[in-house]
Design goal:
The chain is of the alpha+beta class and 177 residues long.
Length: 177
């Protein structure tokens, strides 16, 4: 179906407000993550085959947000051996759950998960045209690192940001793995 055309499938009903729970995602969550990705992005969508591949990697952590028992969003972290910097590779919130603090909850859990594995910084990039992402990341404490010219396939720049993480208290095992 061409981009911009109406979907043949109706959207699921809007979820009732509820408590957002963040947990580590597993292979059984692939369909939910792929659906969130599809509903969230018109471009720069992460292909399902790539999701399958990175979900198997020990260097990748997926966090899944659930609200009212329904998948509400996800976040992907990429770890590199020997590095204390973790890349926040993808963050998506289902349109039905936007404006409910799901992204804020995912970012908080991402910081905890990264710190639990010894990281001291989170880095990410996004399109300057995505003003909602910029506001979210600034509110979460990310600071501008640089602007990369013509970063995306369509020639749009990327804004790179970084957040310094608080050191993980020894013996605290509350972060998702």
């Amino acid at each position: 179906m061409p981009k911009g055309s109406a979907s043949a499938q109706p959207s699921p009903p809007a979820a009732a407000p509820g408590r957002t729970i963040i947990r580590g995602a597993a292979a059984g969550d692939l369909d939910a993550i792929d659906a969130i990705e599809t509903r969230s992005f018109d471009k720069d969508r992460f292909p399902r085959r790539n999701l399958v591949r990175v979900m198997k990697s020990p260097a990748t952590v997926f966090l899944l947000a659930e609200n009212g028992g329904r998948p509400a969003g996800y976040l992907m972290l990429l770890f590199r051996r020997g590095s204390r910097v973790v890349r926040l590779y993808s963050l998506a919130v289902d349109p039905d759950f936007r404006g409910r603090g799901v992204a804020d909850s995912l970012l908080g859990a991402a910081g905890e998960a990264a710190a639990a594995r010894g990281a001291d910084r989170l880095r990410l990039e996004f399109r300057p045209s995505n003003l909602a992402a910029q506001r979210l990341y600034e509110r979460a404490g990310f600071a501008l690192l640089e602007r990369r010219a013509a970063y995306y396939d369509d020639g749009e720049d990327a804004i790179r940001m970084e957040k310094r993480l608080a050191p993980k208290a020894s013996g605290d095992r509350s972060a998702p793995s």
